[in-house]
């Protein structure tokens, strides 16, 4: 069932949102992206005659600490939604039930932090049932926690006849399906970031699906060393060298083109103030480390990306947090943006590449930027997320 097929007239929609937003010392919301992301779903229910009860977690409270109260988010949510958001200082029990019962169509109620109860993360059925008493229809729009089988993200769905994804969840799932299930070819994936070990399941899952795989970032050096290259003091996982060779052999068997960097920006220490130079990736001198892809690599990757019809980007090309090593990641962003402008579908997701894309202003030049780091990574690994499975059935 989709949100468009449900009749919300005089109904209460209980929506799991991800309002786990950063707050400053005075409890002001410093980045409201996640609240903005939930807006479409909330407005849809209100415009179709329903009322909305929002539930979320905020931070990792241990003992109901005030700093983690969702009360702090109420004013910002009211601003963004253009509706006065009411607040109730519990998420289950009499107070919450009364507040829900008194809610009129067009009104929005925000419940207190779900994680004030340890039953939330434990996926406790009685807690999920108590939450379910508050609404007639369940909507899951919290993509960021969809990989967790928590009470409010998964277990609760059992207690509802009428349930669906919100529009944010739908966008996330549709974008990923466009890449993993029905891609226009060629499909090019860029995998960057620090370590092979943290991306190995992603590599294994996408290797047979993509036409071209660009491997950048710190993980490239394990591949280069495994092939006999000299990588100096660059990041390496020695115990993953055999695996790297297996991946390259498998890619050959399946006709997947793997593109590794050919040249790199090297530094004599892991620091913004380090001396820098340039080297072939398999000729990095001892005492030096590769911290970004070089110009030739950027050009090669650019050409591969310009032929793509679908692009998946996960992980930066270098240590983009330090200005001298950010140029490779910026160049990749430029290349992905240009391919997108020329008609390719591009999805950026899963961790640090999202931060990089936002930092360098590419957010509106790619087709979709995922809102869920861990959740997107698990989807790229081919896993079925609990928060999705309970609704899809
Ligand atoms: P991940 O979370 O696996 O996507 O890794 C992201 C991190 O990888 C970023 O913090 C980058 O600074 C880091 N990184 C990228 N390239 C390198 C490199 N060549 N050497 C060390 N760290 C890198």
In words, what does this structure look like?
There is one protein chain. By secondary structure, the chain is an alpha/beta fold. It folds into 2 domains: 3-165, Rossmann fold (3-Layer(aba) Sandwich), CATH 3.40.50; 173-380, Phosphoglycerate kinase, N-terminal domain (Rossmann fold, 3-Layer(aba) Sandwich), CATH 3.40.50. 35% of the residues lie in helices and 17% in strands. It has 14 helices and 17 strands. The chain has helices at residues 33-47, 74-81, 93-101, 118-122, 125-132, 167-180, 200-207, 220-226, 241-253, 295-306, 327-341, 352-359, 373-380, 386-392; strands at 12-16, 51-55, 85-88, 108-111, 137-140, 163-165, 187-191, 212-215, 230-231, 257-259, 263-267, 276-280, 283-284, 289-293, 310-314, 345-348, 368-369. The strands form 4 sheets. A 6-stranded parallel beta sheet has the order 3-4-2-1-5-6, sandwiched between helices. α10 packs parallel to α11. 50% of the residues are buried. The model has no long low-confidence stretch (mean pLDDT 96). The protein binds adenosine monophosphate.
Write the layout of secondary structure elements.
Elements: E1 12-16, H1 33-47, E2 51-55, H2 74-81, E3 85-88, H3 93-101, E4 108-111, H4 118-122, H5 125-132, E5 137-140, E6 163-165, H6 167-180, E7 187-191, H7 200-207, E8 212-215, H8 220-226, E9 230-231, H9 241-253, E10 257-259, E11 263-267, E12 276-280, E13 283-284, E14 289-293, H10 295-306, E15 310-314, H11 327-341, E16 345-348, H12 352-359, E17 368-369, H13 373-380, H14 386-392
Parallel strand pairs: 1-2, 1-5, 2-4, 3-4, 5-6, 7-8, 7-15, 8-10, 9-13, 15-16, 16-17
Antiparallel strand pairs: 11-12, 11-14
The protein binds adenosine monophosphate.
Adenosine monophosphate binds at residues 193-195, 198, 217-218, 235, 290-291, 315-316, 318-319, 321, 351-352.
């Amino acid at each position: 069932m989709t949100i468009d097929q449900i009749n919300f007239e005089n109904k209460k929609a209980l929506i799991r949102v991800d309002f786990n937003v950063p707050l400053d010392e005075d409890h002001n919301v410093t980045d409201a992206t996640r609240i903005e992301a939930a807006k479409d779903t909330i407005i849809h229910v209100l415009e179709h005659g329903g009322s909305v009860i929002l539930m979320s977690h905020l931070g990792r409270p241990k003992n109901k600490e005030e700093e983690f109260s969702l009360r702090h988010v109420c004013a910002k949510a009211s601003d963004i939604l253009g509706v006065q958001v009411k607040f109730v200082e519990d998420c289950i029990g009499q107070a919450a039930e009364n507040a829900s019962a008194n809610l009129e169509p067009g009104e929005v109620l925000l419940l207190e932090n779900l994680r004030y109860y340890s039953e939330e993360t434990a996926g406790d059925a009685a807690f999920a049932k108590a939450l379910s008493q508050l609404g007639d229809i369940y909507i899951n729009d919290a993509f960021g926690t969809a990989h967790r089988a928590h009470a409010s993200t998964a277990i609760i769905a059992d207690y509802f006849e009428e349930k669906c994804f919100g529009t944010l969840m739908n966008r996330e799932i549709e974008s990923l399906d466009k890449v993993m299930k029905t891609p226009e070819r060629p499909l090019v994936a860029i995998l960057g970031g620090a370590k092979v070990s943290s991306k190995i399941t992603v590599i294994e899952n996408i290797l047979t699906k993509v036409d071209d795989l660009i491997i950048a970032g710190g993980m490239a050096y394990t591949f280069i060393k495994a092939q006999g290259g000299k990588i100096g003091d660059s990041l390496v996982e020695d115990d993953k060298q055999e695996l790297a060779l297996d991946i390259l052999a498998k890619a050959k068997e399946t006709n997947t083109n793997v593109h590794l960097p050919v040249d790199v920006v090297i530094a004599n220490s892991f620091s913004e103030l380090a001396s820098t130079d340039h080297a072939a990736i398999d000729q990095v001198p001892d005492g030096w480390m590769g911290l970004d892809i070089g110009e030739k690599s950027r050009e090669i990757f650019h050409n591969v990306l310009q032929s793509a019809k679908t692009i998946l980007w996960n992980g930066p090309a270098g240590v983009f947090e330090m200005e001298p090593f950010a140029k490779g990641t910026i160049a990749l962003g430029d290349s992905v943006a240009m391919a997108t402008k020329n008609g390719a579908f591009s999805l950026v997701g899963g961790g640090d590449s999202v931060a990089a894309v936002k930092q360098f202003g590419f957010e509106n030049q790619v087709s979709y930027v995922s809102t869920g780091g861990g959740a997107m990574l698990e989807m790229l690994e081919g896993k079925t997320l609990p928060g999705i499975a309970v609704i899809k059935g």
